[in-house]
Amino acid sequence: MPAFRQVGEKQLPNPVLCMAWSPKRDLIALANTTGEVLLLHRLASFQRVWSLPPSEYTGKEITALAWRPDGKILAFSLGDTKQVVLCGVEKAEILHVFPMQNSVTCMHWMEVTEESSALSSFYNSEDESKLFLPKLPTLPKSYSTTSKIFSEEKSDEIMNLMGEVRLNVLVLGGDSGFVELYAYGMYKIATLSGVSGTCRSLSLSSDLKSLAVITEVRSADGDPQICYVQLDTRLLSDCLPEVTRMARKFTHISTLLQYLHLSLTCMCEAWEDILMQMDLRLTKFVQEKNTSTQVQDEFLELLLWGQSSFVCAPVVSPSQGLKKLGQSIESSYSSIQKLVISHLQSGSEALLYHLSEVKGMSLWKQKFEPLGLDSAALEGAITAVGSFSLKANELLQVIDKSTKNFKAFFRWLYVAMLRMCEEHVPPELNKMTQKDIAFVADFLSEHFSENEELFDRKGKYFNVERVGQYLKDEDEDLVSPPNTKGNQWLKFLQESAHLKESPLLFPSFPQKSLHFVKRMMESVIEQCLQKPAEVIGKSVKQAVFLPLYTVPERCVSLNNMWNDKKAKMHHVVFCMPEISPGKLYVLRKGTDPNRSAARPNYIYSCLDARFYDDEMLTVVLRGDYEREESGWRVLAQLPLASALSCETEFKWEPNLRLDQQSGAIPCLELVLGNQWRELENMKAQFVAVNGIRKVACVLSANLRHIRVFEMDVEDEDDEGAESQNASADQDGLDATMASEGQGEEPKEEGGERVGGGGDAFRKTEEQLESEEAL
Question: Is the pLDDT of residue 3 over 80?
């Protein structure tokens, strides 16, 4: 392989905590100590594409990063608020936020690569819902200023969060053995238990047969113990078509719930902007009136006789825009009405459609009962959505009636004030029918009350506006519930013993607000979503548990995981700093726990290591002075083929940790050839790689200095690189590789090579110096 060519270098103002390359684009995401997420491009002098500043709502303590396999969404976790955020890469927009019970310490986002005829037919029939459901309208832009997370311009992105039809899973791990799996990054398909310690690294196999976890557990002597755990997730693999279909539907449902939430937020904003002003203005006027009679009587006196004992100016005069206020309230009513018809009802219909399909799936018990789909619970969710639709329809009727009453009241009040001020009354406003008078009387009787209980509960003499009470997020009953007297249908239902308890009829909850019914609907649907996650989580069993080594306090533990999709193997790279600081170990296990156990292979030791691809490992090595910060650093590529093809076997004693039997591991030498490069003037510590894009990013020990390398090109720009790499072909950078053995003791030379790993570095350094002199 040709030498690496440096293509970028940058000094950063804040220390970097996490970094991850995009799997599809030349982009690297960095998270620093201030809570800021930076998206840097490797071209154009490594310029910043965008940055996402920290937010008090989302959090400031970023603990992990992960890219969706298509590179369109970046996920990051926050430790201070215990949340996970999904961010769109194109516009740096936060698309989805969901809370966690524990702090997330690591995450991994993978895509399923298994193919089957059942999956192919599902992929082809995925768009059937679009044939029956209209496209949900975009939320209006005029109410996007007060949304904490989303703006209405993002409604399309919210509905497209799932991306491609092929299943992808976001795996999250945290403290106390906390592990959860999220389909498409949104729907939780499994909550795993039985994993001890704190998760440090995760890798879900692309065939969904197993999940490999590196955990940190407190040992008896108090030092952290690093362990390898492999969990059998065969249920996900065996039911892959069913899991994909169920996850797709439930993710649709999750996005629709978010869409309804946004729609209701817009309605609340429209009401609060204008209608609350009217509510407060009339309430203030009532409290400041200078009369001993009730305000309702005063308005009725004005309605009947055209005059009143109190002055109407404190409310609002024609010169202050009474007519304009009435038009604004009418416009606000119209906006809320359109949101209910076009957004709430459309979203509810789509929700009913998808829930009904999931219920149909649950009735196919042979396929979906093992996944935890409960038809009875889904029937309850459908009923809750139906109640929400009824409440939205009830709100439409209230809006229609309130609009008529408000228009009649303002028109009458406007004319009455013109007459009292002895101003000209337009002829079109001078006519008032008996129906208009009835509307005004209804308005006065509904919005003014002598009941002291209303004053105690609401703090107002003026009743809560009829539409606004539906939009208030309160558990209390409606102050002015709809009048159902004379409703023949309700009377018929109450008299019918069979229809009263019929599951075909949705309950209406006439005393509750729209917000209350929405929260009840969300709670019922959430229970349906959680049931499969619990059932799938209980089916996951621990297949392999291997205690690896102990890590002293304040010592960084190196471990990284990789899933070889072709060979169907889990790879783990780690080091044992206390036992063999000159070695780097690679543990290989088959993704199928029921298959014969894979033999553990071991190579090299370094500061950091990442799997470059299926055949190569990228490492950062430190030179001879390993116990001092002044040691020289090397970036190298290690081929795995020679190590993994070793025929010798190592007999693992199950009662002992690996570090307690490391002396029985045979050692082999590995020559790097020209697959390395010295990192001059840089105390390198960490590395992030992307084998698809053939790039690597090296981070310094102070977390402020990064260098970017193209890995598969000749370094023609740097002076002296060719001469340095030429000598490496002959002797190379020697390091030790531990492969599997079956009780064979390592040769003395190998043992010396393991213990004296620094000699290899020193020898190579002397060769480099002699070559430079030549």
Answer: no
Q: Which residues lie across from 678 on neighbouring strands?
A: 634
The pLDDT tens digits of the residues spanning 459-487 come to: 344 454 677 778 777 777 777 777 777 77
Q: Cβ of 287: how many Cβ atoms within 10 Å?
A: 11
Sign of CA dihedral 477, 478, 479, 485: negative
Q: Which residues contact 321 (CB under 8 A, 6 or more apart)?
A: none
The DSSP call for residue 496 is -
For tokens 């060719």, the residue is: 722
The residue length of the chain stands at 774
Q: Which of 62-66, 382-386, 509-513 has the lowest mean pLDDT?
A: 509-513
What is the token pair recorded at 560? Answer: 């990284």
DSSP bridge pairs for 198: 216
Residue whose C-alpha is closest to residue 324's, from 444, 422, 410, 401: 410
Q: How far is CA 733 from CA 192, 572, 754, 760, in A?
A: 43, 23, 14, 7
Are the C-beta atoms of 550 and 535 separated by less than 8 Å? no
735-738 and 16-21 beta bridge pairing = unpaired
| Torsion (CA) 69, 70, 73, 75 in degrees, nearest 10 | 10
- Strand ranges of the sheet holding 684-690, from the earlier edge strand across to the other edge: 5-11, 705-710, 695-700, 684-690
**Which range among 154-168, 316-330, 603-617, 750-764 shows the weakest confidence by mean pLDDT?**
750-764
pLDDT at 611 over 80: yes
Residue 681 corresponds to which tokens in the numbers above?
Answer: 């003037």
- 689 φ/ψ angles, rounded to the nearest 5 degrees: -130, 160
Number of Cβ within a 10 Å radius of residue 362:
23
Which 8-state DSSP code applies to residue 175? Answer: G
Cα(144)–Cα(17) distance, rounded to whole angstroms? 33
Secondary structure of 276-342 as H, E, C letters = HHHHHHHHHHHHCCCCCCCHHHHHHHHHHHCCCCCCCCCCCCHHHCHHHHHHHHHHHHHHHHHHHHH
Indicate the angle between helix axes 375-420 and 345-362, nearest 10 degrees.
Answer: 170
Global confidence as pTM: 0.70
Three-point CA angle 452, 458, 464, nearest 5°: 100
Torsion of CA 314, 319, 321, 327, to 10 degrees: 120
Beta bridge partners of 174: 104
pLDDT of 524 strictly over 90: yes
105 contacts 200 by C-beta, under 8 angstroms: yes
Quote the tokens at residue 672: 């790097």
pLDDT at 379: 92
For CA atoms 119, 123, 124, 125, the dihedral sign is: positive
Task: Show the 3-state SS of 405-428.
Answer: HHHHHHHHHHHHHHHHCCCCCCHH
Mean of pLDDT values over 633-639: 86
* Cα dihedral: 292, 296, 297, 299 (round 10): 110
Helices 375-420 and 434-447: crossing angle in degrees, nearest 10, is 110
pLDDT of residue 426: 72
pLDDT tens readout for residues 5-56: 888 888 888 999 999 999 988 889 999 999 898 887 776 677 888 888 888 7
**Residue 446 CB neighbours (<10 A):** 17
Both tokens assigned to 17:
């905590």
Q: Burial level of 734, CB count in 10 A (0-12/13-18/19+)? A: middle
- DSSP code at position 500: H
Rounded distance between C-alpha atoms, residue 636 and residue 711, angstroms: 10
Question: How many whole angstroms from its chain centre is CA 231?
Answer: 24
Burial of 3 (C-beta count, 10 Å sphere; 0-12/13-18/19+): buried
What gap in Å lies between CA 519 and CA 27, rounded to an integer? 40
